[in-house]
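User: Please predict the structure of the protein below. I'd like the answer in structure-token form so I can feed it into my own downstream comparison script.

Assistant: Understood. Taking the following sequence of 455 residues as input:
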Amino acid sequence: MSKRGDTIRSLVLKQAKRARDVFINSYGLRPDDYNPAKRLKVDVKMAAEYGVSKEGEEPQPLLAKKGTGATKLITGFETTLALPAPSAGPGTLVAGPQKPSKLPESTSNLQVLPVPTSVLATQSKGRHREAQWHPQWKIMKVLTGHVGWVRTIAIDWTNEWFVSAGDDRVIKVWDLASGHLKLTLTGHVGCVKGLAISKRSPYLFSVGEDKMVKCWDLETNKVIRHYHGHLSGAYCCALHPSLDLLATGGRDATVRIWDIRTKNEVHTLMGHNHTVHSVASQDANPQIISGSQDNTIRLWDLVKGASYKTLTNHKKGIRALLVHPTEYTFASGGADNIKKWKCPEGEFMTNFRGHESIIHSLAINHDNVLVSGGDNGTIKLWDWSTAVNFQTIDTVAQPGSLESESAVFAAEFDHSGTRLLTAEADKTIKIWREDPNSTPETHPVKRADGSIKRF
């Protein structure tokens, strides 16, 4: 056996020496380019940029034909502009990316005109949108009263009061103008994770880690309905804007749709394989959007009761979802970044980069100010259109709290968009407003590349 092993070893060494002798002169040299592949790469780029598809076909310059009729765009690069010749009368410029199949036979009356530099600068500026200036925000008021982490906030549609809840298992009703505590509702036996106020009826809905989904009558301040079905804690809830439907999600990895009048479960939306942390609803498709700890976002068909699209761009769990109030878009937040999507198919639009933390909350107002709250106590304000971060706020934990108790678990704008409410781990609710002393001169706009535009 040993003799056979020595024989195999000698054969391997012999073959290795032979291979070394063959390739020793080419060692360290770069292999020659494969010309067919290189040519194919150039052709693909030219077709994408200039619409040139035939092999060896060179793009022609734009030609403006003289005459009394319309100015005709013949062909060419985007960096050349067809303008009327000096002798041409008033006409219409016909522009388009397509290349004509045949050029005029006689080119004696054709004129090549380059694009002015000012036009190119205007086109370049149009491709890079400038961030809109927004005033800075500052703290206005701090409300205390909870004895546990404040997990969720909901603002009444009359804009007169709001509710908050958290780890202390109670729901508190506050006056929005004065910040005074008006009422405390008890009934949950576990942490309250989500709140929703109905616009169509005087009802308040709450979900918690005790698996309970409760409906409160705000005229009697009592629980009038329980919705049973979740097999584990319920973490989020959202009301349909125009239908009497409530969507809830939780640790059982399902989104459940309830008829709020009959307490019946309309759908059990299954597909996620981890905790559903956030759910959102809107009138148009997708009427239900859910984000889960399994790093996916699902868009649901409410009629079929099934998911028709799964978005897998996130690399971390999704803890916050936001539907834009006027655009047909939505946003999602996780530990990796914030992403903006286009409805109804969930086409990815852009990233909001820079919030290096787990994103617990998202909020937006009608001025296109997006707010994100992180696990490390940072609040970032963004311009929705350009994804530019124009302000970063580090919250300060109230005296008596641990330094690490600074997470921002929820954020909501009031319905006027002038006040921002945040629910935090230091057991407080903070109210923010725009700084009246903020001007474009004192706080210039940051560009997308990080440079500053001064007015």
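That's the full token string. The mean pLDDT is 83.
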